[in-house]
Fold each of these.
Amino acid sequence: MKIQEVIDELKSYDGQPVKIMEVCGTHTSSIFKNGIRSMISPKIKLISGPGCPVCVTSAAYIDRLTEFSLKEDHCVLTFGDMMKVKGSSMSLTEAKAAGGKVKILYSPLMALAEAREHKNIQYLFAAVGFETTAPIYALMMEEMKQKNITNLKLLTSVKTIIPALSYICEREKNIDAFLSPGHVSVITGADSYRKLAEKYKKPFVIAGFEGEHILAAVYEIMRQLKTGRYEVKNMYATAVKEKGNEKARALLSEYFEAGDDFWRGIGIIENSALRLKKEYEMFDGGSRIEGINEEMPKGCKCTDVILGRKNPAECPLFKTVCTPLHAIGPCMVSSEGACGIWYQNS
Amino acid sequence: MCVAIPGKVIEIRGDYARVNVMDNITDVNIKLVDAGIGDYVLIHAGCAIEVISGEMAEDILSLFSELQEDRYEDPGSD
């Protein structure tokens, strides 16, 4: 089948309006970069989901990081995306400007050399992310154990996507299908969506990140909807296996256990956290934060954006007072947040 | 945050491999995968998270031929 035939069919669709949620921020970016919306019927709506871990991290978590960075001989290690996210009073960028020690790393594994080199400094790694990143934290702890590194801890806010999708399916009945996140699926496997597809009777199609991948996945979803099917289809088979990366999953089971977690803009989602097991609490830098109940800024529609009810342009703050340089809501902060992506591309 | 890029393994040294990513050579942890020299791996945050079966272009070609096969098998489609 030629790609033009796929585009022609998707473009000429004139049936019932269809809403497809792309869960992953990288898919949202790719949809813009490849002009996917211009290649499909306006009756097929592509909406963003909760797939930006930075955007759903609580302000209380950021507060722990900023407080730590401001202590003498303490240093926070983090991915760059986290720098601009506001806590209740400041972001890591602002803490750094106020004299805090914050260092951006590309990989959690780089933290090991940093800690071994500066033994007089206490390090805290901002361990955020979904299933894609979590096994790397497990590798990090394995190496900390082997090399007896004691001046490095993890502040974990590791979230899992399947409970979040279940939460959305339960509440947002008008979403017809899901474009499943490609790189989370590399770890969790195609099989991880089967129960959801069966229970909520929705197609879950795993897609890669090229424009062609996304078009093919949308086409597959439309075909399933047309024929009344709700299947898990792996259209990123180059990288995603049925059971995922089993070595990575075994490491996750070794170091982490499920717990309830707070998602900024959503609230508590049951069993959506990967928390360090008790036997590994020596690596924990105080990750347990109880009783978080954070309101979104007044007028901010990030909750509706994360749950697929609105697109960013429907928020009254978008591009008026909320911009990447002066972000009000968390979805504008990260380059993978839905509002940040819409801002850059519209 | 879940961005991952493919690279080709050119040398293995214990738990790490030298990998060619778009003509940049970088060291990547390979403990989560069974990678050999010449394999393509998908790299996230300094770590290979999967061995991929070939170049992405080949994958895309097979994707569309799969859609074609489905179309003929699918009795509901027109």
Note: Chain B touches chain A through 33 residues (CB under 8 Å).
Amino acid sequence: MKNMSKQLKSNLITYGIVIVFYLLMMILKGTGNLSSLYRGLLVPICVYTIMAVSLNLTVGILGELSLGHAGFMCVGAFTSALFSMLLRDSGMNSIVRFIIAILLGALVAALAGVIIGIPVLRLKGDYLAIVTLAFGEIIKNVVNVLYVGRDSNGVHVSFKDAASLNLLPDGEVIVKGPQGITGTPNDSTFTIGIIMLIIVLFVVINFVNSRSGRAVMAIRDNRIAAESVGINISKFKLMAFAISASMAGAAGALYAHNLATLNALPKNFGYNMSIMILVYVVLGGIGNIRGSVIAATILTVLPELLRGFSDYRMLIYSVVLIALMLFNWSPKILDFRSKYSVKNWISKKRDNKEEV
Amino acid sequence: MTRIAGREKVMSFLNYLISGLSLGSVYAIIALGYTMVYGIAKMLNFAHGDVIMVGGFAVYMSMNALGLNPILAVIVSIIVCTVLGIVIEKVAYKPLRKATPLAVLITAIGVSYFLQNLALLIFGSDAKLFTSVVNIKAISLANGQITITGETIVTIVVCIIIMVVLSLFIKKTKAGQAMLAVSEDKEAAELMGINVNKTISLTFAIGSGLAGIAGALLCSAYPTLTPYTGSMPGIKAFVAAVFGGIGSIPGALIGGLLLGVIENLSKAYISSQMADAIVFSVLIIVLLVKPTGLLGKKISEKV
């Protein structure tokens, strides 16, 4: 254990936390100590932690503020749900079908990441943020006018309405514009979610410690210096962005297969969701992967914990958000904290002892 | 026959154009608040849209509960929003002057949620029917083929007045010059004896006061009021500010007007569901061609 590098230890702790959390939840579930409310939260926790880790790759490691991450989730969700619906009656094993659906969702989201990333990553700072926000809204908007149907002739796509699909009488409309997709097979389970989370963690942690990851961080810290030592800026930026997008797509697949009805609302795929995920990342610590996991879990559960206060819960949530930021950054509070912190108190005592 | 049909088409186009300009003027007033705050404090004030909503409720309450006349109601709304802006700045943003921009952004989001949910608690989620603050009759031109509503006239006139007054304020007064100096270089401004903190607070106060006016005008043109009324116009006005070049006052005007016109015309001629997507696509195209917006300054990079 002693020979282990500090980094490896820290990574093992991250995996350990996830596995312990999983075992704990499974035990609670098995012994029937988990109310149905919390059982319903298990898959969303996985979805949002994956989203937070994936956004942390863009915000923390790549150093670019993205406000359109929910758009990639939307792409992954609809692609995978559409795939599952098309193959629903094919008699394929549901687990195999779900795995392919997740991979497909991730792949298409990565493609969207590349297509969006090529123009967007030329911009900087707040301009990049607003353009990602714009792309997120465009994706949501396009999905809301998308109609896909199937009949014996094959698959039809329209951006107008269900009637213009020209389906034969035996056809069925799968994606119904604003009504979205209904009847997606309920394949998402907590176990699959946790496995996905561990894979995502593994990919991100290894990426950060790889040659490419170091190049990405060099670009974040000083773009011009990185360029001058021969790092291909666009390539590495795009790589990180695409990986981040693909993970969001996978999270979207998990999300889609957890719901009976999937539709793109401002609430689930709008900029509000992107901001929500950003809140997880910032509260967990920008660039800190473990922090993202913990913050996403706590903040997903918190509104449910506050359900007893029903009307006041979102108000309390917002106050907690502001208070946490002030607690971490306000100079007065920082002074107060350093004056009265337990750590200081202990070390002062020790100093006094040494003096004696 | 075709000539008459052609004429009708032109007239309906003009109608859409005028209502687009009216919507654009509201966006421009909101965008001003964004652009001034961004120019000086370098922060995206996400709560700005919700201040507009508070302004709307202030007008609604003072007209319906207190029975004030519309002009007094708008003044009440300006006062409420200005005070609110100052309080928000004091409590939430001022302690974070030295924090990372992201921490400030999250705080602004927190404030935005707070205002929305407070309004939800007080007023409930059902939409309130807003009585217009404008009681000027609509004008009809060209044998009634073009109608310009009173709201449209007032909105456009108010927008122009605000632009002129604000430009004069920044050019001619000491406080305005201080704002300009702070937005150029905070440290240098401080060395010149400018009270940076006060200047930032003043900017917030002005931006929020404008939000009060915008709230009254927005709700007069689109007479439903909910706790979420401000959030989408807020985002769009922010887009308008970026579109015109964030930090630039004429940029906010041009960005706002263009955005309003594009949105209205695409709603009329392309697809009402896709209007937002078209607005955002135009923004993306503009930013790709001119990465700092239409009137934004070009920033040279230092090594």
Note: Chain A has 16 helices and five strands.
